[in-house]
TrEMBL record:
It comes from Mycena metata. Residues 1-16 form the signal peptide. The keyword Protein transport does not apply. Keywords: Membrane, Signal, Transmembrane, Transmembrane helix. This is Uncharacterized protein. The lineage of its organism: Eukaryota, Fungi, Dikarya, Basidiomycota, Agaricomycotina. The chain crosses the membrane at residues 81-101, 198-217, 285-306, 318-345, 357-375.
Length: 408
């Protein structure tokens, strides 16, 4: 219903939209009467979309795809990851955190470099039979494990980096774009100029994507072909018949790395799932969920910065406030409930009546908060574009950079 209401707002003129509680008339002493110090609506939209694209496209580091994929399939695969980063950036942060911890643990345990660890987690090493080497169980195999481990250690780090389609310069350019946009928003606030809702939402994307860039800084970008390691021919090799799972199963179970019936089996596939990372112990998993929850809370908190913005209607103002508030609090609620479950799991307290009650409360909190969170995020995506139909005059006034850097 909220989405239908937003569509209704778009199709009507701002002056004819019914307002239950009229807002105060828009007044501003900053009027754009000098073309050299002004910006157009196109400039606002273009700057925001370019920043969002730079943040999400460059930050998307896909796992190694299956062999013999066309460029169109590879482009669609990366586009999916980019759209996931736009719709749910905290999921991308969670994946990046999982692979970061996995690479860190592997590098210490097996004397890898961090780049080797990332390449291992993303399915970059495969056997001569064609299946990926991506679990510690495979490295612990008494027959093939030593061969796999020796083959991985013999791969030079520079050879792995050479497969990457990105380097520090390309990632740095995207990072600078995000920092520059953030600087502009802070300067507008300092000079008491209006920051549109679209710019606030873009700022949230830029800040959250900093997490992804830092976590995936050493991960090779857009690798299309894996490295074969281990013995040249495996004994009694059986043909690989990849198991077909539903899209939701592939996304959910691969992201969390565990399930009862759909655990990923590298011996029955030619590549890892899109959101796969090597399974890890409970403590790094807690840290992963904590980082993802922190990113989600920051994303919502930044959007709360537009709490007192001059919205076209009262209804839109309250929709924005409610959505940003839910987006800020829901990740924290989910993280706290999972943390409590982790603490009491496997203890005698879990079997008590109080333990059962806490588990039931946690389950209800997750069941209620997650759908509300998803609905709030769905509403906050189109709302900034809807608000562009009526902006305050100071939104078109450009930042006076000479106030900070003379002679500009």
């Amino acid at each position: 219903m909220l989405l239908l209401f937003l569509v209704h707002l778009v199709t009507k003129r701002a002056s004819t939209t019914p307002v239950a509680l009229p807002l105060a008339p828009r007044t501003s002493t900053d009027i754009c009467d000098d073309i050299n110090n002004c910006r157009k609506l196109f400039d606002i939209v273009w700057g925001c979309l370019a920043t969002i694209f730079a943040c999400t496209w460059v930050s998307a580091h896909p796992n190694v795809p299956p062999p013999n994929q066309s460029w169109l399939v590879l482009f669609r695969h990366r586009l999916k990851m980019m759209l996931t980063g736009i719709v749910a950036p905290e999921i991308m942060v969670g994946l990046a955190a999982r692979q970061f911890w996995g690479a860190r643990i592997l590098s210490k345990k097996y004397n890898f470099t961090r780049t080797h660890g990332f390449f291992f987690c993303m399915g970059g090493f495969v056997s001569s039979a064609g299946y990926p080497i991506t679990t510690e169980e495979q490295l612990a195999d008494p027959d093939l494990g030593p061969e796999f481990l020796k083959g991985i250690q013999n791969v030079d780090e520079e050879d792995i980096k050479d497969k990457s389609k990105g380097d520090a310069l390309s990632k740095g350019v995207a990072l600078v774009q995000g920092l520059w946009f953030t600087t502009q928003c802070l300067a507008r606030v300092h000079q008491h100029l209006a920051v549109t809702e679209l710019e606030v939402a873009t700022l949230a994307f830029a800040v959250v994507n900093i997490f992804i860039w830092l976590l995936w800084w050493n991960k090779p970008l857009d690798v299309q072909r894996p490295v074969v390691v281990g013995p040249p021919k495996l004994p009694d090799t059986q043909p690989i018949n990849p198991r077909q799972l539903s899209r939701w199963d592939r996304f959910f179970y691969a992201f969390w790395g565990r399930s009862a019936d759909y655990d990923y089996d590298p011996l029955s596939s030619t590549s890892v799932p899109s959101f796969w990372s090597s399974p890890m112990e409970i403590n790094p998993l807690r840290g992963t969920v904590g980082i993802a929850a922190l990113a989600g809370c920051m994303f919502g908190a930044i959007q709360c910065a537009a709490w007192k913005n001059d919205f076209p209607t009262t209804a839109e103002m309250w929709i924005w406030r409610a959505g940003s508030l839910v987006t800020t609090t829901s990740p924290a609620v989910v993280f706290l409930t999972l943390l409590v479950d982790y603490i009491i799991y496997g203890t005698t307290f879990e079997e008590t009546a109080l333990g059962d009650a806490i588990s039931a409360i946690n389950l209800i909190a997750n069941v209620v908060s997650i759908p509300i969170y998803m609905m709030s995020r769905a509403v906050l995506i189109p709302l900034p574009f809807v608000a562009l139909r009526s902006l305050p005059p100071s939104a078109f006034v450009d930042v006076n950079w000479s106030a900070y850097i003379p002679h500009i």
